[in-house]
Design goal:
Blueprint lengths: L3 E6 L5 H11 L7 E6 L5 H17 L5 E4 L4 H8 L4 E4 L2 H11 L16 H16 L14 E5 L5 H12 L3 E5 L2 H6 L13 E5 L2 H11 L8 H18 L3 E3 L5 H11 L8
Parallel strand pairs: 1-2, 1-3, 3-4, 5-6, 5-7, 7-8
Helix pairs in contact: 2-3, 5-6, 6-10, 8-9
């Protein structure tokens, strides 16, 4: 087993290289690695500086560095590919094959994957983000009729980041509402969200993980105690079952996976685009 330094590089944001590269690396466990994201390598000078940085990392680590790239500029790609590394260009590997299959040359335009190709799509996402911020944690409820989904669960189960991800990534109008001790004691849905039951989606988590998260927020408090968390998790899951609300245990899954499950369960797509 050799340690690897991993680079995610691009002549634009490097978001695609990082996302796809990380997804691929998850299939190879136990590799100790140092990761570097290097965006906007858009000149020869920057490409040559990157080559030196990659080569220098090889002298420190045992194995050749791994480079995931999404260059659209052929010249810059060739410069970086000459470094002493294992080089994967995630665009070139597919673009050349697609050009052959589609019998059409690609535009090779920089930044198209993250550009404002569809202004209405971008504006819809911004509206969804504003909605998620305004209707976070039950702060307001007057426009719940406009929500595509309302996330519910006890405190610190990831409702807010999931709401924002759904809004920013997919333009889905997402509100979230906390289930409190009084709701759990009564074993009933809060009155404010009962009329919107068909839009509800529950998030739950292991009591141990919830206790760790809460301990960071309020160390040593009853709120963070394992006993409190065990009671709340048990009661909220009982409530979800009783009210027939779909829910997901988010203990060991990412925000992206949570969002995908919500979209699948609630049949949500990029509905505002």
């Amino acid at each position: 087993m050799k340690n690897r330094t991993i680079f995610f590089v691009s002549d634009r944001t490097a978001i695609t290289a990082e996302t796809l590269g990380n997804s691929l690396m998850t299939q190879f466990e136990g590799v100790e690695r140092e990761r570097h994201v290097v965006p906007f390598v858009d000149t020869q000078a920057r490409a040559e500086t990157l080559v030196k940085r990659i080569n220098d990392s090889y002298t420190v680590n045992e194995g050749r560095p791994i480079v995931f790239s999404t260059f659209t500029n052929d010249n810059l790609r060739e410069i970086v590919a000459e470094s002493d590394c294992i080089f994967y260009d995630l665009f070139d590997d597919y673009i050349s094959r697609m050009e052959s299959d589609l019998r059409q040359e690609s535009s090779h335009e920089v930044g198209k994957s993250h550009g404002l190709i569809d202004k209405s799509s971008y504006e819809s996402r911004i509206r969804a983000v504003n909605y998620a911020l305004e209707y976070d944690d039950g702060a307001k409820m007057d426009r719940y009729d406009q929500a595509d989904v309302i996330l519910v669960g006890v405190s610190r189960t990831g409702k807010t980041p999931t709401s924002l991800f759904l809004a920013l990534q997919y333009g889905i109008f997402t509100a979230n509402f906390p289930i409190t001790d009084s709701d759990l004691d009564n074993c009933s849905l809060p009155r404010a969200i009962k009329p919107h039951k068909r839009k509800l989606f529950g998030l739950t988590i292991s009591a141990e993980q919830l206790s760790r998260i809460r301990e960071e927020r309020r160390p040593g408090s009853p709120y963070a105690s394992l006993r409190t968390c065990q009671r709340e998790v048990s009661q909220v899951e009982e409530l979800f079952h009783m009210e027939n609300i779909p829910f997901l245990n988010v203990t060991a899954i990412s925000i992206e996976e949570i969002a995908a499950q919500i979209r699948l369960t609630r049949d949500l797509d990029e509905i505002h685009f």
